[in-house]
Amino acid sequence: MLPADKQAAASLAIENSEKQLAIAEAELARSLGYKLCHCQFPPTIMLAVGYADPRRDVKGQVYECSKFGYDTAAPWAFTRTKPVSAE
Ligand SMILES: [Zn+2]
């Protein structure tokens, strides 16, 4: 067990490392062509969850933010091929 001041410093170092990792992941995802949701910083990587109804304005794959569930198409305008994320 660490003393309280060292414990706080260790917690802060871990928190900063996690943020840097999330930024690196977002940069990698962006370079690979993934969409990023701007609901928080570092940004959340959006994953494909289905395909759009071809009669709608949005075409092709539909992407979803895993944090807050924002979809790039309205819920009734696409066919979901991946279960709703539980994150
Ligand atoms: Zn989001």
TrEMBL record:
Highest rank taxon of the organism: Bacteria
Protein name per its UniProtKB record: Uncharacterized protein
